[in-house]
Amino acid sequence: MHSLHLIRYGVAYVFIASGLIKLLNPSFKEVFANTGIPSPATLLLLVALTEVIGGGFILFQFYVKRAVVPLLAIMIGALLLTKIPLLHAGFLSFAFEARLDIIMIILLAILWKSYGK
């Protein structure tokens, strides 16, 4: 199996699972509300649906490059809102907590670069 397929499957899995848990677990409303963003319930729904749909597009190799863009925005937003503040606790704490976010950004960038139009 080509390594790009494995990256696609892994990225799709992470986003589909993440989106579904956001849709099904009511405690995520509190998580989003605690970030101080406006309309947290609406944003939670938008993020969750984008993750599930974008993950599905990537899984089935349908508009991969277009699906990557909003997912990159979500990951960068999550990094800025939830991980950058951890730098006050020290770099190692930040590096540990941000590890998945950073890896997902790298993998999304690989997918974006690897797929044509």
TrEMBL record:
It comes from Sediminibacillus dalangtanensis. It is found in: Membrane. This is DoxX family membrane protein. It is a multi-pass membrane protein. The keyword Membrane applies. Keywords: Membrane, Transmembrane, Transmembrane helix. Pfam families: DoxX. The chain crosses the membrane at residues 7-25, 37-60, 67-86, 92-112. The lineage of its organism: Bacteria, Bacillati, Bacillota, Bacilli, Bacillales.
